Structures are given as structure tokens and as C-alpha cells.
Amino acid sequence: DAGITQSPRHKVTETGTPVTLRCHQTENHRYMYWYRQDPGHGLRLIHYSYGVKDTDKGEVSDGYSVSRSKTEDFLLTLESATSSQTSVYFCAISEAGTSPEQYFGPGTRLTVT
Amino acid sequence: SQQGEEDPQALSIQEGENATMNCSYKTSINNLQWYRQNSGRGLVHLILIRSNEREKHSGRLRVTLDTSKKSSSLLITASRAADTASYFCATAIMNTGFQKLVFGTGTRLLVSP
């Protein structure tokens, strides 16, 4: 898990509460990504960042927001968690947008009750 | 809609046997990548094959790509118990200087001693 940490690793929260997941990297890579992994869907891109304060939406961005105030940190926020957001969330990084591979963090298992 | 679909969904073999898993996709791609995910961990990049390549080798891994059929296969030779994991194909599509990865649903490989 090449210099990528995610916190928390597990979280249980109630419907309607805000939740923030953190991704921290020590590789100084420019691009960072948030994915969610659900059975039968593989990994789906939520948001990505191509630099400090530069972010864009992925294919399943509804209900999520992100922020990147420093190169090393990428935050994913669920403003009002819903049960459909129960999932495993992965952060990934790459050197450039055209880099051939992405490096993944260990994941955060989020349960919304 | 899902870009990559792996087949089979699950595969159970004995140590020493070869494991073959397939990936089909729908649109033109820049490259295709295979990732491995051990239980409870993040994804790890295994191998990349570009759209103008037909076959690639890396250690015990062999990847083929048939762009006319929009399909790829991953062969793991002389499998080991440590190869037990889920394997995902990811198709890379270039979009305004950004390489978007679209993941399939994965093949769960179980290698028994």
C-alpha cells in the first residue's frame, strides 16, 4: 500500500449524519481518487483531484463532496449519510493523469445504519 | 454501464494448475490493466497491456488482448495458494488528458494446496 493511508479504517454511522473519510499520501503524487466498491459493481469512481483545490466528479458523485487543501490529503465527505452509501471506500493515487497505473490505499469500510 | 465484465465470477483450482480469467469490454480503450485484491486489502497493479499490443508477460502472468473482440485474458501459470485473491480488469480510456479507469466486477480465484 505504497505510502497511502486511509482513516478511519472502519466506521459505523447513522443515517443523516455527516461523515468524512481521509486519504493521506507520502508519495507526492499529483492525482488522487476516491472509489467505492460494492458487490456486483466492481470499483466505481466517485471524485478525483488533479492538484490542490482542483477536483472533478466521477461516475457516482451524487451525495459526495471532496476537498484537497494539501497535496498529501484528499477528503471525502458524505454530507448526510444514507444506507445506499454503505460500502468500502478506496483512495488511489497516480503520478499524472496519464500514468499507466494507480496505487491503492487499504480501504475504509463504512456502514450506515 | 459496466465497461469490463470478468468471466468466470469465481474459479477454484489446485496448486500447480493454471488459472485463466477473461475480461470483455465495450468501448475503445487506451490500455487494459489487471489488478489483484487480497481479502480486506486494496488493489495492487499486476500488468498493463496497451491497445496496440497483443500479448504481454510478467513472471507467471500472461495477458492477451484482442481489440477486435474487445476482450482480454489473464493466465496465471503454476498457481500457488498465495495467488488466492480477486482479480479485476480495468480499461483505461483517455478523456481530456486524464486516464479514466473503469473496473470490472472481478474474478474470485481460490487456489487450494
What would you say about this model in short?
The complex is a heterodimer of chains A (113) and B (113). Chain A has no helices and eleven strands.
Structure, explained:
The complex is a heterodimer of chains A (113) and B (113). By secondary structure, chain A is an all-beta fold. Chain A has one domain: Immunoglobulin-like (Sandwich). Helix content of chain A is 0%, strand content 58%. Chain A is built from no helices and 11 strands. In chain A, strands 2, 4, 5, 6, 9, 10 and 11 form a 7-stranded mixed sheet that branches. The model of chain A has no long low-confidence stretch (mean pLDDT 94). Chain B has no helices and 11 strands. The radius of gyration of chain B is 14 Å and the shape is globular. Chain B starts with a strand and ends with a strand. In chain B, strands 2, 4, 5, 9, 10 and 11 form a 6-stranded mixed sheet that branches. Chain B has a 5-stranded antiparallel sheet with strand order 1-3-8-7-6, with no helix packed on it. With 113 residues, chain B is mostly beta strands. Chain B has a single domain, classed as Immunoglobulins (Immunoglobulin-like), CATH 2.60.40.
Keywords:
heterodimer, A: 113 residues, mainly beta, Immunoglobulin-like, seven-stranded mixed sheet, 0% helix, B: 113 residues, six-stranded mixed sheet, five-stranded antiparallel sheet
What is the string of helix and strand elements of chain A? Answer: EEEEEEEEEEE
Q: What is the straight-line distance between the termini of chain A?
A: 29 Å
Q: CATH first level of chain A: which class? A: Mainly Beta
How many separate domains of chain A? 1
CATH topology of chain A: Immunoglobulin-like
The CATH homology group name of chain B: Immunoglobulins
SS strand fraction of chain B: over 45%
Largest interface: A-B, 25 and 24 residues
User: How does the major sheet of chain A shape up?
Assistant: 7 strands, mixed
What is the structural class of chain B?
Answer: mainly beta
As for the CATH topology of chain B, it is Immunoglobulin-like
